[in-house]
């Protein structure tokens, strides 16, 4: 068990220092192998690689189609058109709310959170400039809309977390709608109130928008699309996935087809878009699969059986042990989907057995898993956090405090709330 925690500590340290997880995860796995008495060569070439390849085999089509869909939304300007519609409806004076809703609409429609960051960032800069809100709140605002309630909580979301939980627990993406809405409401409500509190506090301290930092950033993308097309594709993905029960890649493929047909005049850009999407998909899935490979080695170490016994013996509801296991692993790997996959790969059969004997719905396990995966996944070493801060030209010291509140503290509170409700039989 000590070796497992040493391996987790090594992974967190290396990731936090900015080292690529593709090679950092095998190093951490070897720490686990050494302390667990495993054969080092076999631990890497067989156990680790089986976990990495297995995850890639299962999920690469979803990563690829999701990347293509996001890039098509970005290239055609459909994502920006939807964002500008929301801006007109909500108003420039409500800059924070406009950005949150725009991010949420895109992520709930299936657009990758990384694509959302790049698509919404120029609009966020312009809105914050007009409202004279401190620019260091931009990362927290984008992360609230893109990294929290639409990614993990809201029922029907086509984001990867929801799909992974469905696979391992035999549920649907609409699992536990009441728990999902409650968790989403806590994240959105608390997050928005926090950001408004921070806006007023920073304004009183005399902090304003620093225009020099973003003088070259203009929301001037030429949009060759109509917001109706973007909304149609987003709604199509969600409805076909949840109402017609289409497979995720077919549902996302339908959204891609709508975008391609509606923007056929831009066909010369399609090849470049597909190339960029393919490159992005490979990078994204390798980063996640590397963390899963680490988890596979952990699972074979002798101490893991003891750790599992300790988790399941925490007392109280088994939903609590699930939440603790998943949020801990998500924090260690810096990946919500990676941490959840590691935990469910090892423990899902046990949770389903408990569900059958203790009378707790598998749907409750599903929603607790997705919400818990988004608790500690956005610690400072998280790749999404590092990317977001880089895009916004800010440092951890500038903006991580607000990111941590909206992406770690409030999601953990939401997970605690639905663990209690789920243990009472509410789904």
State the secondary-structure class: mainly alpha
Q: Percent of residues in helical segments? A: over 70%
Low-confidence parts: none
Structure annotation, total helices: 19
Sheet-strand content, in percent, reads under 5%
Task: Describe the largest sheet.
Answer: none
How far the N terminus sits from the C terminus, by CA atoms, comes to: 34 Å
Shape: globular
Report the count of strand segments: 0
Please write the string of helix (H) and strand (E) elements.
Answer: HHHHHHHHHHHHHHHHHHH
Give the oligomeric state of the chains in this entry, treating copies of one chain as homo and distinct chains as hetero: single chain
Q: What integer is the average pLDDT? A: 89
- C-alpha Rg (nearest Å): 21 Å
């Amino acid at each position: 068990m000590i070796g497992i925690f040493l391996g987790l500590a090594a992974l967190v340290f290396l990731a936090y220092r900015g080292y690529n997880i593709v090679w950092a995860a095998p190093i951490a796995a070897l720490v686990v192998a050494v302390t667990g008495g495993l054969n080092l060569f076999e631990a890497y070439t067989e156990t680790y690689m089986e976990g990495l390849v297995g995850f890639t085999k299962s999920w690469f089509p979803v990563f690829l189609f999701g990347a293509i869909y996001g890039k098509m939304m970005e290239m055609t300007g459909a994502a920006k058109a939807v964002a500008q519609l929301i801006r007109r409806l909500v108003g420039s004076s409500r800059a924070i709310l406009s950005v949150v809703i725009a991010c949420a609409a895109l992520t709930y429609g299936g657009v990758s959170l990384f694509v959302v960051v790049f698509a919404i960032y120029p609009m966020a800069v312009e809105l914050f400039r007009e409202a004279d809100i401190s620019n260091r709140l931009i990362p927290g605002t984008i992360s609230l809309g893109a990294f929290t309630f639409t990614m993990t909580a809201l029922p029907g979301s086509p984001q990867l977390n929801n799909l992974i939980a469905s696979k391992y627990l035999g549920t649907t993406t609409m699992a536990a709608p009441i728990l999902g809405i409650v968790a989403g409401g806590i994240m959105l409500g608390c997050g928005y109130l926090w950001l408004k509190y921070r806006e007023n506090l920073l304004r009183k301290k005399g902090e304003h928008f620093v225009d020099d930092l973003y003088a070259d950033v203009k929301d001037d993308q030429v949009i060759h699309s109509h917001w109706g097309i973007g909304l149609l594709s987003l709604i199509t993905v969600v409805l076909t996935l949840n109402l017609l029960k289409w497979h995720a890649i077919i549902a996302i493929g339908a959204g891609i087809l709508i975008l391609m047909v509606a923007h056929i005049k831009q066909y010369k850009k399609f090849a470049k878009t597909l190339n960029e999407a393919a490159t992005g998909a490979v990078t994204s899935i390798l980063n996640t699969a590397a963390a899963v490979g680490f988890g596979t080695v952990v699972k074979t170490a002798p101490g893991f059986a003891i750790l599992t016994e300790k988790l399941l013996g925490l007392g109280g509801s088994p939903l609590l042990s699930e939440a603790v296991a998943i949020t801990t692993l998500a924090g260690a790997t810096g990946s919500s989907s990676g941490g959840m996959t590691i935990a469910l790969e090892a423990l899902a059969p046990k949770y389903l057995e408990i569900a059958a004997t203790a009378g707790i719905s598998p749907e409750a396990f599903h929603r607790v898993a997705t919400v818990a995966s988004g608790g500690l996944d956005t610690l400072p070493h998280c790749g999404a956090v590092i990317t977001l801060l880089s895009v916004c030209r800010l440092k951890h010291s500038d903006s991580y405090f607000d990111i941590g509140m909206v992406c770690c503290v409030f999601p953990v509170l939401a997970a605690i709330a639905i663990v209690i409700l789920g243990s009472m039989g509410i789904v």
